[in-house]
Design goal:
- The protein is of the alpha/beta class.
- It has a single domain, classed as Aminopeptidase (3-Layer(aba) Sandwich), CATH 3.40.630.
- It is built from six helices and eight strands, in the order E-E-E-H-E-H-E-E-H-E-H-E-H-H.
- InterPro entries: MurNAc-LAA_cat (IPR002508), N-acetylmuramoyl_amidase_3 (IPR050695).
- This is N-acetylmuramoyl-l-alanine amidase.
- GO terms for molecular function: N-acetylmuramoyl-L-alanine amidase activity.
């Protein structure tokens, strides 16, 4: 199975959300690298949309990378911010009309929330170009809120980043096994 791992934003012209002196682009690139390692160790082939701060890594570039390489799934990693420091939790987004993407989002969300102990904000449909233009199952994961001090500490701790990556890899594996069982019993 071939997976595109996408650390959101480009870290150059678009750092993403920022709070408490922490930039989203820096947190998600670290988690993404750990996720690639976890997936590789489980036998997956991975493609990383960026390995550092690179200008011009637009949603269209991410879509083209996934579609040109005929990948089996795309996992886009993000964080969030809110006006209130009290808001917290993990959310996974998927494109409307894609039951495979919904299953992938559900599997990753379940494993991530269990591993990190974050509030389960659920899985939600969302219309974003990186979600709707890709020809494979795709999920955008908002791991936590940088604006929440406790989650910011979690998101910037390397051990917790590795834990998040491990949970996401477990979610991908759970999704793959569910799909395999579905084809076995219904194929």
């Amino acid at each position: 199975m071939k997976i595109v791992v996408d650390p959101g934003h480009d870290g150059y012209t678009d750092p993403g959300k920022c709070a408490g002196g922490v930039r989203e682009c820096d947190v998600v690139i670290s988690i993404a690298k750990y996720l690639c390692k976890e997936l590789y160790e489980r036998g997956y082939e991975t493609l990383l949309t960026r390995s550092g701060n690179v200008p011009g890594i637009t949603p269209q570039v991410r879509v083209e990378l996934a579609n040109a390489n005929r990948v089996d799934a795309l996992v886009s990693i993000h964080t969030n911010v809110a006006v209130s420091e009290e808001v917290s939790g993990t959310t996974s987004y998927y494109p409307a009309g894609s039951p495979e993407s919904r299953q992938l989002a559900d599997a990753i969300q379940e494993c991530l929330v269990a591993a990190l102990g974050t509030t389960n904000c659920g899985i939600r449909e969302k219309e974003l170009s990186v979600l709707t233009a890709v020809r494979c199952p795709v999920v955008l994961i908002s791991v936590g809120f940088l604006s929440n001090p406790a989650e910011r500490a979690l998101l910037t701790d390397s051990e917790r980043q590795q834990q998040a990556a491990r949970a996401m890899a477990e979610g991908v594996e759970k999704y793959r096994m569910r799909r395999k069982r579905h084809y076995f019993f219904n194929g």
